[in-house]
Amino acid sequence: MRFGKDMIKNEGAVSPVIGVILMVAITVILAAVIAAFVFGMGAPEVAPQASMKGGPSESGASYTETIKIEHQGGDAITFTGANTKMTINGQSVTFIEEGDNATFDAGEELYLFNVSSAFYLGNTTVAAGLTPIVPTGETATIKVVDVPSQQMVADFSVRF
Questions:
Q1: Which of 25-39, 61-75, 85-99, 107-121 is predicted least confidently?
Q2: Mean pLDDT, the chain, integer
Q3: Which of 7, 12, 72, 154 could lock 52 by a disulfide, CB 3.0 to 4.6 Å apart?
Q4: Residues 144, 149, 151, 153: is their CA dihedral positive or negative?
Q5: Is 83 domain-assigned?
Q6: What is the Cα–Cα distance from 73 to 52, expressed in whole angstroms?
């Protein structure tokens, strides 16, 4: 085999092949970027960040009938079915406040109570037929989830 002029003449096709490979790679990358914008691969929804604490309320006839939930700081929470979901021991909680009262800001208190095995959240504990949330000595687990982002806002337990 000769390594002289014959070898130099055969290297002419390398440059077009590399050029075609680079053009295909650039086209694939551009298509992926455009698809990401078209199909909405953007920043994910961010849940409000809040610090909440709960404990037995002192306003009921018994300490097991209501839970006082305090917003200790962070973002305001909007308690509507489309924005926030709250559960206590796996059961859904109904929000009884409307309009501006549905917003839970830092420093505010809300009360969670049980009427005929249905749980309600409001700014008062005055309701007829309150029943204990859980028996004395047991724990109630409360979870608050931001619906649009499906992220947990708060998760805490209250022992009676």
A1: 61-75
A2: 82
A3: 154
A4: negative
A5: yes
A6: 8
Question: In terms of residue numbers, what domain contains 105?
Answer: 50-159
Residue count (the chain): 160
Q: Say yes or no: 146 and 88 in one domain.
A: yes
Q: What is the DSSP letter of 43?
A: P
Strand partners, 119: 93, 114
| pLDDT at residue 84 greater than cutoff 70 | yes
138 and 66 in a single domain? The answer is: yes
The answer to whether residue 45 is domain-embedded is: no
Quote the pLDDT of residue 59.
56
**DSSP 8-state class, residue 36:** H
The number of domains in the chain is 2
Tell me which of 57 and 61 has the higher pLDDT. 57
Task: Give the containing element (helix H, strand E) for 154.
Answer: strand 151-159
Is residue 68 scored above 60 in pLDDT?
yes
Q: Annotate 59-126 with three-state secondary structure.
A: CCCCCCCEEEEEEEEECCEECCCCCEEEEECCEEEEECCCHHHHEECCCCEEEEEEECCEEEEECCCC
Distance CA 76, CA 104 (A): 5
